[in-house]
């Protein structure tokens, strides 16, 4: 066998071992009230700040897509080392989501210090907030360890941008083991939250000085052109991803795409492309089907690149490694 293959097999074995140690009742003896504590803190935060759900769900996606679900996205930069959080693509990762997770972690540390990993917390928090905003509940296996590295350049390479073609999106997801159906179902997360104007400016103002993207509903294009008028001077100006029911986890995102009401180019293209359109049609017509497929894909996403004891730890604070800053 060549060494490359041996390395690949060893990695696969390590990943399988990490997964084998996970279970639904992982904390039943060491922190039996963990679920309750997380849910309570998040419910309070979501009520006082309804943008929390979208922020946490997006953090979960970014965490798992960049080097596996290991809470590396939560590590703050220090003078010694910059981290994933500070990548350009992270400029807009929302502070409320970090705050919600810090509060939940603090409550967990009071009850059972050093037991519940930040990676598990993030996966559970994203699930809880999906459920709280009207989406499906899905059981999770626990036992993820927190990663020991976080790089500011990783997200740029791994996180899909809103200017990708469907072919690129399909390839990016396939490289991590996700199907076209998974891609469409997971994109349904854009039923929550918002995007900043620069992410869709080319669609509404035209790339080369032309008009709006013809696949966008003209009334929506006009509204967005007005809302985003000063976006270069006010880079925090944003619009809801789901223009109809922005705070509710439902299948409206897919219903919108049929009417040209998608916000990002990568949203609307899912309806324009023959590979993804049948899934959009199915989810628009049947919310139960969307919820079932989203739950299955989100659970799989939550297992992506999970770390075990040897290559991870349980952080005491989600924003710092236990051993201090690393290069
Ligand atoms: C299919 C490829 C995807 C692309 C190109 C994409 C792109 C984007 C972009 C550009 C934004 C706006 C960021 C900003 O302006 O602050 C955004 C927001 C968001 N994304 Fe995605 N995304 C994708 C997939 C996903 C997936 C799989 C999830 C979760 C499972 C997700 C969850 C979210 C959420 C919840 C928001 C709103 C965040 C907030 O309001 O704070 N996205 N996405
Ligand atoms: C796509 O968007 C990213 C981030 O905004 C940017 O860095 C990149 O140059 C864009 N690519 C193209 C082909 O426009
Ligand atoms: C909706 O999807 C669910 C889950 O796939 C399926 O069991 C149900 O029959 C579908 N309903 C309709 C009306 O097609
Ligand atoms: C939430 C968060 O940590 N955002 C950071 C993203 O990157 C910028 C630029 O480095 C930081 O200033 C933000 O604090």
UniProtKB/TrEMBL annotation:
CDD domains: secretory_peroxidase. Heme b binds at residue 190. Ca(2+) 1 binds at residues 63, 66, 68, 70, 72, 84. Its cofactor is Ca(2+); heme b. Keywords: Calcium, Disulfide bond, Heme, Hydrogen peroxide, Iron, Metal-binding, Oxidoreductase, Peroxidase, Pyrrolidone carboxylic acid, Secreted, Signal. Substrate binds at residue 160. It comes from the Eukaryota. The record marks 58 as: Transition state stabilizer. Residues 21-322 form the Plant heme peroxidase family profile domain. GO terms for cellular component: extracellular region. GO terms for molecular function: heme binding; lactoperoxidase activity; metal ion binding. One of its GO terms (biological process) is hydrogen peroxide catabolic process. Residues 1-20 form the signal peptide. This is Peroxidase. It comes from Oryza sativa subsp. japonica. The gene is prx76.
């Amino acid at each position: 066998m060549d060494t490359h293959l041996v390395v690949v097999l060893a990695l696969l074995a390590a990943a399988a071992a990490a997964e084998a140690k996970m279970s639904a009742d992982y904390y039943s003896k060491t922190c039996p009230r963990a679920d309750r504590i997380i849910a309570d803190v998040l419910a309070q935060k979501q009520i006082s700040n309804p943008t929390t759900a979208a922020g946490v769900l997006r953090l979960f996606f970014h965490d798992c897509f960049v080097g596996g679900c290991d809470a590396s996205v939560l590590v703050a930069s220090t003078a010694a080392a910059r981290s994933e959080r500070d990548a350009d693509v992270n400029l807009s990762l929302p502070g409320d989501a970090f705050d919600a997770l810090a509060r939940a972690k603090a409550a967990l540390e009071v009850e059972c210090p050093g037991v519940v990993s930040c990676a598990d917390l993030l996966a559970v928090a994203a699930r809880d907030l999906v459920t709280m905003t009207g989406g499906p509940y899905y059981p999770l296996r626990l036992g993820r360890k927190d990663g020991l590295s976080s790089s500011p350049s990783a997200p740029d390479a791994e996180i899909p941008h809103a200017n990708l073609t469907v072919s690129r999106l399909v390839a990016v997801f396939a490289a991590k083991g996700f199907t076209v159906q998974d891609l469409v179902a997971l994109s349904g997360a854009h039923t929550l939250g918002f995007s900043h104007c620069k992410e869709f400016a080319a669609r509404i103002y035209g790339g080369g000085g032309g008009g709006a993207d013809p696949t966008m509903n003209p009334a929506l294009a006009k509204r967005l052109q007005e809302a985003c008028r000063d976006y270069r001077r006010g880079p925090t100006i944003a619009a809801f991803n789901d223009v109809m029911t922005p705070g509710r986890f439902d299948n409206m995102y897919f219903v919108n795409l049929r009417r040209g009401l998608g916000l990002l180019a990568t949203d609307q293209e899912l309806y324009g492309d023959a590979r993804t359109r049948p899934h959009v049609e199915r989810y628009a017509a049947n919310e139960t089907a969307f919820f079932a497929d989203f739950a299955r894909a989100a659970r799989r996403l939550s297992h992506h690149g999970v770390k075990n004891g040897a290559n991870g730890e349980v952080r005491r604070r989600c924003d710092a490694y236990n051993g201090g800053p690393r290069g």
